[in-house]
Input
Amino acid sequence: GVAALVREPFNLMPVLKAATLGILLTSALMVLSSLPATRGVVADLFSHPMLEPAALRTQQHLADTDGGIRGRSLIGVSIVSATVLNVALPFAALLAGMVRGLWRLLATLAILAAPLGVTVSYSRSAYLGLLLVVAGFVVMGLYGRRMLLGVLALGIVALAAVGPTDALLLSRLETRITAMVQNPLANEREHERLLAYVEPFQHVMHHPRFLLLGEGSVAQRFGTAHQSQKATHAVFAKAYYGFGLVAAVLFAALPILLLARIRRLRLRLQREEFARSGRPRSEPFTGALMVAALPFIPYFLFDHGAISAPASLMLLALLFALSAPRLQQPMGRRP
Output
């Protein structure tokens, strides 16, 4: 698999370049589809069933809304697309630190574009993921950390100066954050996020077969009797009704297992280098992997996209694969 192919640092180039181009395309689509003035430019793109499986519903949504909406891309809805941007961002930074010329320019543009795409998702989980990525950039010393901090600061100032408008859904954020802070138990949408971790345990007491077996992935799409009117706005709850309690626990633990796997790889490579050269080894590759894994934490905690949208789960699988290789030399700039 991927682990067998990635034997040296520059075997990663196709992955890093694909991540960079993906950020640029996804960010552009999210911004263009979100703003009313530019939505018509990309509306036709979402009308092709080969590119957008829910083409009819998506096109109607784009056409029926006059003001700003949550941006989307060909990857999926806002939260899925924004999470993919957060995960891919460290790979663009890794590429920018390794090359010069056109690809460094594209990678730098990707670092600047990703926060814009995440912003128009208007998703608190995506925003929390971006904050974790920014903190990871600073702690791991990744390329572009000052640039990313500057973009984040300028973006916050600009949004505060502009305020709520028809083109921006800042009022949605204000409403949701107010409900979350003031009285989350009284708000149905906020309460659902808490119930997603309570109801499965209550349900399994009356339906013991759900300890090992759920209703399957197909039944989830039809509002079955078991999960109808249930809180499923989390990977844990969605996986429980689909695959059972044991599988739900394993699914929910995947981001933590991934971080532990990357940490073991990082420590092992550092020990090997220290034993060989007597110097601690710089590990931007494993640092980028660790930062890329962080956005999955709020994504799994507060959304069910990893179950209902396979694209994000495949990205998680890629990170598991990339955390296995034995790189034979430190990551750095091409000589």
In short: The chain has a mean pLDDT of 80.
